[in-house]
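Re: your question from the hallway

Yes, I did run it. Sequences:
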Amino acid sequence: MKIDLYSFLFYFFAVFTAGSAAIVVLSRHILHAAFALLFTFFGVACIYILLNADFIAAAQVLIYVGGVLILILFGVMLTQRIGDVKFIAIPMQLYGAAVICTLIFSLIIYVIYNQPWVIRTQKEITSTTERIGIMLLNDYLLPFEVASLLLIVALVGAAIIAERAKKRW
Amino acid sequence: MVGLAHFLILSAILFCLGLFGVLTRRNAVAFLMGIELMLNSAGINFIAFSRFCSHDIHGHVFAAFIIVLAAAEAAIALAIILAIYHNLRTIEVDKIDVLKG
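Structure:
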């Protein structure tokens, strides 16, 4: 069977993403988990590029890798003694969680294969950025404004909570 | 040929790994990492449906909103985790059992 470049890239990045995601949830060292999360975010960005989503891929790299991951690393550094390894659950909990996740996974796979998806061919869109900008300020204007309000609230709220923590109220 | 199902299965794998992390981790920051994995899998689903099942790119806008929500959520969650750490000196979710500030 001949494998074309697109399939090869998809399988490569899929294995890359899923593998580093597995390290994120299974690693015994929290710093290893945080760095594996970096590779997962990059892998997801590459999957977005394979799906012709250039703007979302760029936003993924900028916001997740540049913002969320840095925040998580800050959280690790400020709250954890490095070398603290005991943060995996007790075995009973592990088995229960494995059973639940396997059940949900098989349910999702069942739905994916038994659902008659309507496949439509997309219009050739070379760059999605312009189209997304037009949509955000027309069809999605209200969610866009609500999102900006949410960001302000999150910013102020995080600052107030962190300040209270410093004053030890 | 790689089609819609492949991307959906990848997203299902990511979602279940994230769920496993949320269910088994005792550290609140590691807990948060599981949630980020689940949000990413939802983003892949939106983009995949937008690519294969739609003429337009509405899914991209939703993926952008997911990214915004994830950023806000991470900032708030880490502020709360830091406040808990300052008060209780631990971020193990099993040991955080007081509601009094």
